Amino acid sequence: MSKRKRARKNNRLSTTPIAVTEFSSVPSNGAESKSSPNYVTFEEAQKDEGKFKIWRQQTIDWLKEESAKLEAILLQYNPFDLIGNLTLTQLFVNPEKHNVASHSGLPAIVEYASLLYLKHPFSERLPLPIGQVPLEEIDQVSRTIQLATGLYYGSDEMRTIQGQQPEAIDSLRFRTMTHEMTVRSPGYEHHQRETLAGLFEGFTDWMLANLGFSVPDVFAVEDAIQSITSRKILRRFDEGKEAIEKLKKDVRLARRGKLPTSDLSDMITHLSGLPPSTASAQIKAAITGWIFSFIGTACLVFDAEELAKEAKLPIERVVALMAFFSLEFGSVPSDFFLMSPTHPLRDRPFINNAGAFLYPVPGSMVWALQRRIETEMNPDIAKGAGDSKVWKKYERHRARYLERESLDLLKAILKTDEVYPNLSYSFIADGEQKEGELDGLIAFDRTLLLVEAKAGALTASARRGGRERIKSNIKSLLGKAHQQALRARSYIENTEVPKFFMEDGSEIPFIKERFARVFLVSTTLDPMDVFNAALHEVVSAGLIEEKHLPWAVSMDNLRVIAEMNEFPTQFIHYLTRRLHINDFKKFYAGDELDWFGLYLSKGLSFDKDERFAEATHVMFDGSFSAGFDDYYFYAQGQRVKPAAKPQQPMPKLLRRIILELDAHTEADGHSEAILRLLDWDDESREKFVAGLGELRRRTRKDKKIHDFTMASSEDKAGVTCFVTTLSNAQEAQRKLRSYCLMKKYQVRADSWVGFLTLVDQQPIIQGFVVFADPWTHDEELERLVADLPTSRKATGSAG
């Protein structure tokens, strides 16, 4: 199943799926009931501390009442059948028509109904048909409860509802709790399986001895559940189709008086007296009701023996696994009513009734697995299986795994062999020589990446919204990694000849003058989307330094970007624009994939976008990453209609030029030239391609050297392109360098790129020059540029 995300949307702009909002709490209408003489309005609660406390109590009382109403509705129906219907209507996505971003279902609704049922012993209850009406009512009531619960959690202190810009920690807390209450699959399941297999490699024996099953067993059972339930659903639909056809046939026979009296039921008698079209519609509705009313019991329930047979596993392993991950009826406290960011079904996603199991939110076992195993393994929190030696071994393995995977993925993105793990270096601090460590260093052309990885996880208290625990977790996972990377950067900047050493003591090749830019990269194993996607807010909360912010990314998001990034320099361009987002201090997204999707589709450039000038809070929704959902649905066999990887739109010739340049493996500055091309907007890219095409046609005709220039005094940058034949190549190459220097000076630019292309030769770009020195006055250049033609942005000059 693909990733799920939900974002509140308000004042939606017509051109892009974004929401420009002010961050203020809005009271739930349902929570305001003026029947009590002591009733306090939301406005009153904003002004008086005592009334604020009364308003908070009113809200929780209303939530308890609404929960009781919902529970009463649920208890009229068979638990497995009702939950099964919610699972199908809330969670199942038709990948041919929808992606996850466009699907409105909420796993929290299914989980909440399940938890309310689990307050009671299992009861078959009356076989009431489950139609559209109760499902819609349950959906509506549940969503109202969820909204009001979010308000309740988000307004734990009076200042949070007073209509002012919230304190950063309050916003982080609210968004953390909202994320935990709504998002169940923060990545793609096949990626999570890959991570889990690597994390617990070497710990199978411990799992079998202490838990009774292994990680591959979990995957096998997950697949078996999907196969079993899918077959049962298809069979149920086939039976329904057969029943419809048989009933229609019996009605036709009854109309002609040819149906045996023994087969003539009241229903057939009734239907035979209706017009054929009306009878057909009623038959279809009746059988459809039969299919869905009991679909939970008939199709979505399974037992350990079925799973063992389907998964080809020993029955005792399946029994142990299902016991480990299941809750029984009556296991939830009788006073439960408040939705929670951390509830039992997050860790035990199956419901068990005497060996019959239901899976309310399919796929959630895979996402619960790491947390559950670590809980059992850690002696500080385990109830019996914890072992300090095993736990320390696992912690070391987990840290090294994240470091290795992070560097491997970044290596794949950048297609470079200059990747160095686990480095050390010496530096002076407070007059003393100290040893520094760096998880990884990656060199790509003129770009340097300093990588730090933290494999810890958010604690349950942080996920429930504990302010102090959120602060300490961020500091230990993001802050510490940032400090370590900053130290390495400072060492490079302040040392004439920096030296880094591998674990075996060998020194890596490193010349700091080579690099035009340095990026700090911080990777986490735990999904830290709330914080990573809006790092400026973490800075505002005082939890990390604002200086040289890192690109912070979780492993699940990094895997997707590694597979979707088209060419190495595209990633460098993305990092440049992505980190600039933090400077605005008002842009938010659900996770890093939303930012990357927005970059691929729209460019991720807001400097000149006037729509956001007055806004203080802009939220981009999940639709920008929908293309990833479509692609993975198709790649994983869940979708028949082909879906290609999302690509950045650009003219074909420009894409070809960029791909040819980015195939260079030497550090020759080719990425600097590509970055200049990527910085252009769509119009400039089209004009570049048109200008290049025109000059190539001229050159084929007259065999001379032709050139054109596109420059921008505002951006202080420009591009010159020389086009000629092979016979004039050397002369053109000599002229290109001097001409670019003069044009750069004339425009007073800080950077300039020159390209040489030879008609009818491959690759298209046969040479290039890059200048990136700040403009300074020069008398000799003043004289030389006096007669040069001026250049204008996009249109440029040609000769």
**Major β-sheet profile:** 5 strands, mixed
Number of separate helices: 30
Helix content: 40-55%
The percentage of residues in β strands lies in 5-15%
Strand order of the largest sheet: 6-7-8-9-10
What structural class is derived from the secondary structure elements? alpha/beta
Overall mean confidence score, pLDDT: 91
Q: Could you give the distance between the termini?
A: 56 Å
The number of distinct β-strands equals 17
Q: Can you give keywords for this protein?
A:
799 residues; 30 helices; disordered C terminus; alpha/beta; 50% helix; five-stranded mixed beta sheet; 17 strands; single chain; disordered N terminus
Describe the structure in your own words.
This protein is globular. The model is unreliable at 1-32 and 792-798 (pLDDT under 50). Among the domains are: 187-385, no CATH class; 394-585; 652-798, no CATH class. It is of the alpha/beta class and 799 residues long. α7 (189-199) packs parallel to α16 and α9 (215-255) packs across α13. Helices cover 50% and strands 12% of the residues. The two termini are 56 Å apart.
